[in-house]
Write a structure and sequence with these properties.
This protein has about 300 residues and is α/β, with parallel strands linked by helices. It contains ten helices and twelve strands. The protein has one domain: Alpha-Beta Barrel (TIM Barrel), CATH 3.20.20. An eight-stranded parallel beta barrel has the order 1-2-3-4-5-6-7-11, surrounded by four helices.
């Protein structure tokens, strides 16, 4: 199999806590880009409420009018009945496809007989799981970031049905989630009295080891990689994997510029301008997981 010529570019949901104005300005800029698919919604913490359900729908309708496919994303870690209530409301929207980021959401969508996408936090580690989820309504899966190119090839050799594959190609990688809040702890606050400190860190809070090595990125209840995963070169040169969509994760700066580099490289078939993309990366780059190596490595 070869990389499809009509490979699409997606923009994942905002994983950080931004103000309502910052979110609005961001998506007005995104509307002008060549991104094909935009995921919307709060996926990290239910306490982040600068944008509510109706606000996301309004943004979605605006982006749809600009020719984007809009998908509503759900919480990754469900902690209360109120979270389930919100997720059911999202799943029952009659306008947009839904990205399930937890297996409970998969079950809700399946019960409603609705098609869906699974996010990178859903543990799909073998082709049998894909087959089961496909029967429940799965149309596209986002491969977990820790899986390698070889794993993808192994999957595809065993898949005898039509299902799209999306690869997390650029951004701080999602690594872990906890019922505790890492950001609140960093400020010596309890989770119940976090004072919404996440909003002070537009791209998360860098965590270093005692040896001052950049190790992780704190984002509320989520831990991300300190380095930015960048697989543009690998995807561009891929000859075997059948990849339908490449995902860019939003960052507070340069996201439209990053989308344009991807667009020029993948769709217009131009050489990769590594120096141009490098100046838009916040911190260092990594690609280790793609090569079945420690994720923080750059190979």
């Amino acid at each position: 199999m070869a990389v499809k010529n009509n490979i699409r570019i997606s923009l994942g949901p905002i994983t950080y806590y931004w103000s309502e104005q910052q979110i609005s300005d961001f998506y007005h800029d995104i509307a002008k880009t060549n991104v094909d698919i935009v995921y919307l919604g709060e996926v990290i913490c239910a306490k982040r409420r600068t944008q509510d359900y109706n606000g996301w729908l309004e943004i979605g309708r605006f982006l749809q009018k600009q020719g984007k496919q809009v998908i509503l994303s759900t919480l990754t870690l469900i902690e209360a009945q109120s979270d389930i209530k919100t997720i059911k409301k999202i799943c029952r929207n009659d306008e947009f496809l839904v990205e399930a980021n937890d297996i409970a959401t998969v079950q809700i969508l399946s019960d409603l007989n609705l098609p869906f996408v699974t996010g990178p936090s859903v543990n799909i580690y073998n082709s049998q799981t894909l087959k089961i989820l496909q029967k429940k309504g799965l149309k596209r899966w986002v491969m977990p970031v820790e899986l390698s190119r070889q794993t993808l090839l192994d999957f595809q050799q065993k898949i005898d049905f039509d299902i799209e594959t999306e690869i997390f190609t650029f951004g701080k990688m999602p690594l872990a989630y906890s019922a505790r809040c890492y950001t609140a702890r960093a400020y010596n606050l309890s989770k119940d009295d976090c004072q919404y400190k996440c909003i002070d860190d537009s791209d998360g809070k860098l965590l270093k080891t005692k040896e001052q090595q950049k190790f992780l990125n704190i984002n509320g209840i989520q831990m991300q990689s300190a380095a930015t995963s960048n697989l543009l070169n690998e995807i561009k040169n891929e000859k075997d994997a059948n990849i339908d969509v490449v995902r860019i994760n939003p960052q507070s700066k340069f996201t439209p510029d990053i989308i344009e580099v991807f667009n020029q490289t993948l769709k217009e078939n131009n050489p990769i301008n590594k120096d141009k993309l490098k100046k838009y990366i916040l911190g260092e780059s990594c690609n280790g997981y793609w090569f079945n190596s420690p994720g923080m490595n750059l190979l």
